[in-house]
Amino acid sequence: MPRWGMVIDLDKCFACQSCTAACRMENNTPVAGKDQAGMGRAILWNEVLPFTEGEYPNVVETMIPRPCMHCDNPACIKVCPVQATFKNEEGTVLIDYTRCIGCRLCTVACPFTVRYFNWYPPEWPEEMKAHLNPEPEVAPRPKGVVEKCTFCTQRLRKARETAEAAGRTFAATDYIPACVQTCTGHARYFGDLDDPNSLVSKLAHSPRAYRLFEELGTQPKVYYLKQG
Amino acid sequence: MTATDPKSRFSRRDFLKLGAATVAAGAGLSMLRPGEKPAAQPLASMEEKVVTTTCALCPSGCGLDVRVVDGKAVKVEGSALHPLNQGVCCLKGQTSLEILYSPERIAHPRMQMGERGSGDWKEIPWEEALGIVAKKLIGLRESGKPHTLALMHGDLRGQMRQTVQRFMRAYGSPNMISRESLGEGTARMAMWLSQGINGLPVYDITNANYVMTFGGNLLESSRNVIGYLGATAFMRRGRPQRGKLVAVHPRLSVTGVKADEWIPIRPGTYGALALGMANVMINSALYDEAFVRDFTFGFEDFEDADGKIHQGFKSLVLESYTLERVANITGVPTDIIARLAGEFATNRPALAVLPTEVGELSSGNALYTALAIHALNALVGSIDAKGGVIVQRFPDLADWPAYSLDSTAEAGKAQERIDGAGTQFPLAISAYQNVPERILAAKPYPLEMLMLLNANPLYDMPEDGRCLEALMKVPFVVSFASTLDESAAYADLILPASTFLEVWGDDYLEGTGYAGISLRRPVVEPVHDTRDPGDVFLDLAHRIGGPLAKALPWQSYKDLFTDRLSTLDWKKLETNGNWSEMVYFNATPGSQAWKDVVGRDRLNAPKDGRFDLFSRELFALLGSDSDLACLPHFEIPSALAESSVGALEYPFLLITQLLITQSQQWQGIIPTLQECYGLQGYVKWDSWVEVGQQAAEALELHDGDRVWIESAQGRAQAAVRVRAGLWPNAVFLPPGLGHHTFVRWGRDTEDNLIVGANPNKLIEFSSEPLTGLAVSGPTRVRISRA
User: Among candidates A137, A143, A174, A151, which has minimal Cα distance to A93?
Assistant: First the structure.
């Protein structure tokens, strides 16, 4: 059973936000609009977050692209009162939208702020609904539930189906999330962290590798390689 | 594996699927029991295919694989077989489906019934619309005034540029006016005046060891941004030796953040820094002496045919651009300038990258700034070298059919251009920003008809009403806009263009260097009753007849470009979506091939394979007493003088810079781009103005305060963002927002009507007297609390 994980090389990431847009188009996250976005309610599972330190002219800015960390020891699951959010057998943290009661405890508990609440029913102008991804897993979520990055679970399912239809065994390299595929600097790597020969597992052991808030003990499965 | 709660062992994944499927069906909570499979298998019955096409949202022209399910385009990926983007796709490409299915698109041709600008539109059939335009065009031709037609255009791709050129020439109008003079025209002109190539420079970052970008847009909005992103990543991590990227910009842009080093510099003084670096390189003999001696002209002082001594690059730089003086002008300390020069000269191949967009070359003498920066490349021998500046090659295509002009067209062609290119500005290719004034002055003649193709002059120009007045003065205005942009709102007639996802076409692989073609094909059936402007021009040519029908004999644009591309390997073109040579051959200096990369397009200067540090093209034009005007040099823009009256009234210098989250033509209608808009401003859907820490302290401004930014031209409102990474007296306002006509999204609040501010409204464009290129400042502004 693979244990899916991601590595993001900040030396090759140029903060272009292609991942952010690819994620939205793949996963049908709704557009918030100006007023709602102004209240911090834009739903972007894969945002790029800027941080500034120092004063002119010695300024250091960092741009961190941030998907869900799919922690091995996730804080969100512990606080969910209805077991709507869970970690599956492959280590991916998912949400059962039909169980979610919208209490948002998980949203607060997550140290990485990856969880987004649907304050309104998802809305698109009628014409624009044509481009929504028809996969059932990404059907627009109703008002009142929390959603977040799923490592594009629909792509995993499709990759398995494709392998099955072709009569071969599914391999971990058959599947990558949309953000990894579109990454303009080829900065993202995805694969099975448990396979010592996989590229992600090798990179995760690189001396440049670190994880966000490692000290909190949530054991994220998203690794960063530091810039420079 | 971590232990999982046994109760949730029954596949949570299945449960998720069930849940999602039921939501999709709109049934709300379902009563399915564990273990049951969902009844509906919605995708099994769907017809799914992937269509490969070529993006048209920025000049890169990447290959796209569009996933089409049941006739609807649902996802865009980069095409892995395209040599430029190699499988990746930027956020504009990703969100292009929001353009295709936008409710803001114009669905049918429409005619203004009331007064222009009144919004009283009537939808009419194509036949009628084309009839009206053709009748007007025929009328102008018959009355002997074909030159009173002008066409203002933005980016034209592949064969489209020549198609439109042929149309205008055969019709008899000299007035094909490119928007290029607002931006990358400067880089093109610098390439021509120095290297003798009429083309935009392409940078071989993949093989460079040291890349110094002047201006902050290399990794955000340069012409070939996707290629450069991949190349920079490769330069850092894809090869044994890591190259260094240095960004010189008054502001710590995303490019600066991601560069290895950011050099803050006083706005508008790039040229001085480049010349200061040249001074160090010459003084310390770090430049490539053999290359400079054998393959450049004008490095040393020289004697002309009449025995007159002229100043060369070396003595000018040594006399006038000493470290101390340059440090004073640019604000970059002497030790840093010296170090940069040393690093640049000793880590070859090194590249000095020209900014290409408007506002980036913001000094009062943009052309000489560009010449100074490009001269650095010659000093280290990076001309058409591996890891240097390379020259875009183009494939050999089938010849255009011959045609001859009739007397009407001949007479029209001989007329002066409405923008003054070639007359008022002797070297200009176009002078877009000069058109409104000339229309208003009816100089050299009153304009009778104006066509707008991918151009929105009302948005591009300052808001002093002059541009609108000029537009209203033209009796008949036709726009090819796909959405109701500011200028289209004042047109008489709109012939809505299809989006790039609905049409046939082609694109050169510009930015790779080597020759190649990328195929554009319809991904879906046209969503609306729109047409490709290429087809419209062919249709009009047939209606008008005469030389036009001979110049453009094709029935459709698809026929036209397939004829043109008939020399290529179509099997490969259709299978891969592109055809290319896949490899760039660098020319050895002095070889036969060298003539194609240095001096090829010179008109009045010798094609001797020498790179002009002293521009002989300018010398031929300006005469023998103009040494300084032929050399890269730097004049301090008047706006930079701190003691002037303007400086007291307007203490800040405005800088703007294109963002990657910005789409030239479509910004207003792509909600996801808006939602990603202000990465460094911490805002979405809105403009922000960056103010330096000290200035913010002095003015008691804090993040989020609304302020007016005011110049002598106009004012705009935005929220403050106090920025550490900004030149102390600069303020930054990003371009791209502030559209008036087509922004509607989200709940109906006042705020949602007009989104953001348009910095073009603050900037005064003037035109460079020789080249007609727009120069814009730096514009002085002041800030006051709103």
Answer: A151
**Tens digits of per-residue pLDDT, B324-376?**
999 999 999 999 999 999 999 999 999 999 987 666 665 667 889 999 999 99
Q: Considering Cα of B490, then B491, then B492, then B494, what sign does the dihedral take? A: negative
Q: Which residue has the tokens 């300006």?
A: B622
B237: contact with A, CB 8 A cutoff: yes
Mean pLDDT within B585-591:
93
Distance (Å, rounded) from C-alpha B767 to C-alpha B600?
A: 27
Q: What is the pLDDT of residue B361?
A: 65
Cα distances (angstroms) measured from residue B9 to each of A1, A81, B544: 15, 18, 74
Please give the CATH architecture assigned to the domain spanning B639-785: Beta Barrel (2.40)
Tens-digit pLDDT profile for residues A30-82: 998 888 888 889 999 999 999 999 998 899 999 999 999 999 999 999 999 99
User: Per-residue pLDDT for B216 more than 90?
Assistant: no
Residue B528 near chain A (CB below 8 Å): no
pLDDT on residue B625: 83
* Residue B620 touches partner A, C-beta closer than 8 Å: no
Nearest chain A alpha carbon to B30: A98
Fold agreement between B110-181+397-498+530-558 and B639-785: no
Which residues, other chains included, contact B624 with Cβ-Cβ below 8 Å and sequence gap of 6+? B304, B306, B308, B310
- Report the alpha-carbon distance of residue B242 to residue B246 in Å, rounded: 13
- Enumerate residues 249 to 268 of chain B having a beta carbon within 8 A of any beta carbon in chain A: 252, 254, 257-258, 260, 262, 264
Rounded-to-integer distance, Cα A225 and Cα A203, Å: 8
DSSP string, B525-578: S-SSS-B-HHHHHHHHHHHH-THHHHHS--SSHHHHHHHHGGGS-HHHHHHHSE
Supply the pTM of this predicted model.
0.91
Report the complex ipTM: 0.94
Least CB–CB distance from B252: residue in A14, A59, A89: A59
Looking up tokens 């979405």 gives: B684
DSSP state of B48: E
User: What is the third-level CATH fold of B110-181+397-498+530-558?
Assistant: Rossmann fold (3.40.50)
| Domain boundaries along the sequence of chain B | 110-181+397-498+530-558, 201-391+588-630, 639-785
Residue type, B203: Y
Please provide residue A52's backbone torsions phi and psi, each rounded to the nearest 5 degrees: -120, 140
B415-424 average pLDDT score: 93
pLDDT value at residue A133: 95
For chain A, domains (ranges, CATH) are 4-225 (3.30.70.20)
Kindly determine whether residue B16 and residue A128, on different chains, have CB atoms separated by under 8 Å. Answer: no
In the structure, how many helices (H) and strands (E) does chain B have?
Answer: 27, 31
What pairing do the DSSP bridges indicate for beta strands B505-508 and B493-494? unpaired
| B27 near A CB under 8 A | no
**Inter-chain CB proximity A88 and B12 less than 8 Å:** yes
> Do B778 and B366 contact (CB within 8 A), yes or no?
no
Interface touch A56/B726, C-beta < 8 Å: yes
pLDDT at site B26:
37
CB atoms B746 and A34 under 8 Å:
yes
pLDDT digits (tens, 9 = 90+) for B287-316: 999 999 999 999 999 998 888 999 999 999
CB contact under 8 A, A135 and B22: no
Query: Where does residue A93 rank: exposed (0-12), middle (13-18), buried (19+ CB within 10 A)?
Result: buried
pLDDT in tens, B701-710: 999 999 999 9
Q: Which residue of B has its CA nearest to A130?
A: B72
Domain B201-391+588-630 - what CATH class? alpha beta
- Identify the weakest region by mean pLDDT among A113-122, A183-192, B160-169, B462-471: B462-471
